[in-house]
Amino acid sequence: MTPVDIMNNLDICIRALGQGNTELKTLGIKKAEAERKYRIALNKEILRLKVDKYPATLIQELARGNKEVAELRLNRDIAESSYYTAISAMDNLKIEIEVLISKLTWLRAEFKNS
């Protein structure tokens, strides 16, 4: 790998990191929105079950078992997973950038010694 190739790869990684920041913000908003919808639906279901005089020991389990609430919880979990996957991808890009910089440093030292 030549220094030019390394520089090109660095440029690609830096651009990808910038795009990742934008994507992370979008995914963070989706994650928060999914959490909000889930909590609202769960609380409504809990209140409905309390009004219907279900036993207090069963209300939490019954509320989470409601089809709409369960679907919203799934969406929340998927949004959360996507968010943390994006963070992991950005961490990988940072490591790749560090490796490329190390390679450039090593090549510079090799050229000076030859």
- The class by helix and strand makeup works out as mainly alpha
Topology, number of strands: 0
Please count the helical segments. Answer: 3
Rg, nearest Å? 24 Å
Q: What overall form do the CA principal axes indicate? A: rod-shaped
Task: Report the mean per-residue pLDDT as an integer.
Answer: 95
How would you spell out the order of helices and strands?
Answer: HHH
Q: What is the rounded distance between the termini? A: 17 Å
- Low-confidence segments, ≥5 residues, pLDDT <50? none
User: Helical amount among residues, as a percent range?
Assistant: over 70%
Largest sheet features: none
Q: What is the beta-strand fraction?
A: under 5%
Could you give a short description of this structure?
The chain is mainly α and 114 residues long.
Write up what this structure looks like:
With 114 residues, the protein is mostly helical. The protein is built from 3 helices and no strands. The protein has helices at residues 3-51, 56-65, 67-113. The chain is rod-shaped and about 85 Å long.
What is the secondary structure topology, with strand pairs?
Layout: H1 3-51, H2 56-65, H3 67-113
Helix pairs in contact: 1-2, 1-3
